[in-house]
């Protein structure tokens, strides 16, 4: 990570760490649920003018998040913060990753190793020690903070329903939908709200503004930038710096007591969280199989053989003329690799690209891997018999979809460039799994960097015509989609798949003017590229 990104990561942690102080100052003057509602109001007002209302399943996801992440996580957190010191809250809220691990075991039947079990034991042992700290008084606030951390973990599961919506839009709309919830709770549980608002000092208003703008919108946006640039294993451990800053700020700025229970319990909890979080980020990274460097068109690239038994012979005369890109859609690389090599799973791909850029070769290219399923492209089926399949490690929409790190994208570009050059794959036959199976699949998804591939000569990317030119009719646009290769049996699903790839900011399945122009532009781009590629030279 370059020094600029190190400083950026530190800035994010400072913003998040100081959030505990800002919130503590705010809830000391304002009822905590009023404070929560004001935070949501400011965040929603700043964000929502730029984003449309989500629809369908995404709307249900945002509504669910408004309760779990808005009301439960933030509302309960600020209610507890009015009774405990900022330093203790900074530590107790870090139990979110351990709760996520437990949810993975319970809901997704994920297996965990002994290191993460030790991490869980340490994390919650530290919580027990902090709960006995004399200055905390009753254990009720401690339990409330643990509930807030648990709500954060649940929200990480629910967020998969908000696929296709920019993170800031999710934040803005969940804040808006949470406002009536916390207002109703405030009406039931609190009193003197208007008097508190009128009498609140400037420090309280600065606290509200800080939590809404800097700790939420600014910090999360910068964190998202880091996730786009680097593997999760590099970025995630930085999250452990925020509670340390929160503890220090509580002690040195707010004058909170530094008792031995708080310090020792905090150290134990953070050590346990560190083990859990780093193992979550890096699990599955050890070299698998026999390391056999293979020089490709990129001499710096090496592959690791990790053979899968899940393949059979290609039909006689069938040669790869398609490249299909997938994401793994599983919690981590180890789980995905285990499934791709499990004989009972009956799924595989030719290659697996990890987040750090490591490439695993699972199936020889002359064999038929089992990755495409029931699918169709350009009128043909049995895609497995005529394609090379590449699985790209990403949790996917089900387990916390996130951007593809730069190192991973560089490896994907290098691998794909080599594959299409060796097999002579045409630009129009470089496809997403969602393109060939639009009613079943959505990978590699809207965060995948297709323009980067196109810049390297891999697959098409449209050159827009004049925006004021008349839009093609719906019939013309659908004809363009069919010519590109989409199966229009389920028209809306095909349009969604096309939009997810070529207009990733909005994929609602509506054949609007922009989508129609894009469809015609992509068709023309493919025709031009393939005509150029097939033109005789000499």
Automatic annotation (TrEMBL):
Keyword Transmembrane (UniProt): yes
Pfam family, one: Amidase_2
Top-rank EC class of the record's enzyme: hydrolase
Superkingdom per UniProt: Bacteria
UniProt EC number: 3.5.1.28
Domain N-acetylmuramoyl-L-alanine amidase: 308-445
GO biological process, one term: cell wall organization
Catalysed reactions, as listed in the record: Hydrolyzes the link between N-acetylmuramoyl residues and L-amino acid residues in certain cell-wall glycopeptides
Alphabetic keyword roster: Cell wall biogenesis/degradation, Hydrolase, Membrane, Transmembrane, Transmembrane helix
InterPro entries associated with the record: Amidase/PGRP_sf, Amidase_domain, EamA_dom, EmrE-like, NAMLAA_amidase_2, PGBD-like_sf, PGBDSf
Gene3D superfamilies, sorted: 1.10.3730.20, Peptidoglycan recognition protein-like, PGBD-like superfamily/PGBD
Membrane-crossing segments per the record: 33-51, 58-80, 86-107, 114-132, 138-159, 168-189, 204-227, 234-254, 260-278
A GO CC term assigned to this protein in UniProt: outer membrane
Record bears the keyword Transmembrane helix: yes
Molecular function GO labels: N-acetylmuramoyl-L-alanine amidase activity
Family: Belongs to the N-acetylmuramoyl-L-alanine amidase 2 family.
Name of protein: N-acetylmuramoyl-L-alanine amidase
Annotated organism of origin: Roseospira visakhapatnamensis
């Amino acid at each position: 990570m370059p020094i600029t990104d190190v400083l950026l990561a530190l800035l994010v942690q400072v913003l998040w760490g100081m959030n505990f102080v800002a919130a503590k100052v705010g809830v000391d003057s304002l009822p905590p649920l009023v404070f929560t509602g004001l935070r949501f109001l400011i965040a929603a007002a700043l964000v929502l003018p730029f984003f449309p209302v989500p629809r369908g399943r995404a709307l249900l996801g945002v509504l669910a998040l408004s309760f779990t992440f808005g009301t439960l996580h933030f509302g309960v957190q600020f209610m507890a913060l009015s009774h405990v010191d900022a330093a203790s809250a900074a530590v107790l809220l870090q139990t979110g990753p351990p709760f996520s691990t437990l949810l993975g075991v319970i809901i997704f039947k994920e297996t965990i190793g002994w290191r993460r079990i030790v991490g869980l034991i340490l994390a919650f042992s530290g919580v027990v020690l902090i709960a006995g700290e004399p200055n905390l008084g009753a254990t009720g606030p401690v339990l409330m903070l643990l509930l807030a951390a648990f709500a954060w973990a649940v929200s990480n599961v629910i967020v998969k329903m908000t696929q296709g919506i920019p993170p800031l839009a999710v934040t803005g709309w969940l804040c808006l939908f949470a406002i009536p919830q916390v207002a109703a709770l405030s009406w039931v549980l609190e009193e003197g709200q208007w008097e508190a608002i009128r009498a609140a000092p400037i420090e309280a208003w600065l606290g509200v503004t800080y939590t809404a703008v800097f700790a939420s919108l600014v910090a999360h946006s910068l964190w998202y930038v880091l996730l786009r640039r680097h593997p999760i294993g590099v970025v995630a451990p930085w999250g452990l710096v925020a509670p340390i800053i929160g503890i220090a700020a509580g002690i040195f700025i707010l004058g909170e007591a530094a008792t031995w229970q708080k310090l020792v319990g905090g150290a134990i909890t953070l050590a346990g969280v560190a083990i859990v979080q780093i193992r979550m980020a890096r699990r599955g990274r050890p070299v698998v199989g026999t390391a056999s460097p293979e020089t490709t068109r990129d001499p710096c690239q090496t592959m690791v053989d990790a053979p899968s038994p899940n393949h059979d012979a290609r039909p006689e005369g069938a040669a790869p003329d398609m490249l299909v890109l997938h994401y793994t859609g599983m919690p981590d690389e180890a789980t995905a690799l285990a499934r791709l090599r499990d004989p009972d799973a009956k799924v595989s791909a030719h290659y697996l690209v990890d987040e750090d850029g490591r490439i695993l070769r699972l199936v020889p290219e002359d064999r038929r891997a089992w990755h495409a399923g029931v699918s169709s492209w350009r009128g043909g089926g049995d895609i497995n018999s005529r394609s090379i399949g590449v699985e790209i490690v990403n949790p996917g929409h089900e387990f916390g979809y996130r951007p593809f790190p730069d190192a991973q994208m560089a490896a994907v570009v290098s691998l794909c460039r080599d594959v299409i050059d060796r097999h002579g794959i045409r630009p129009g036959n470089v496809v997403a799994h969602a393109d060939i199976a639009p009613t079943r699949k959505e990978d590699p998804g809207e965060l995948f960097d297709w323009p980067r591939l196109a810049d390297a000569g891999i697959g098409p990317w449209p050159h827009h015509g004049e925006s004021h030119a008349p839009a093609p009719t719906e019939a013309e646009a659908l004809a363009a989609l069919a010519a590109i290769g989409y199966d229009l049996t389920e028209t809306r699903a095909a349009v969604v798949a096309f939009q997810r790839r070529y207009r990733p900011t909005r994929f609602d399945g509506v054949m609007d003017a922009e989508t129609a122009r894009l469809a015609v532009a992509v068709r023309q781009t493919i025709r031009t590229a393939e005509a150029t590629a097939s033109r005789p030279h000499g």
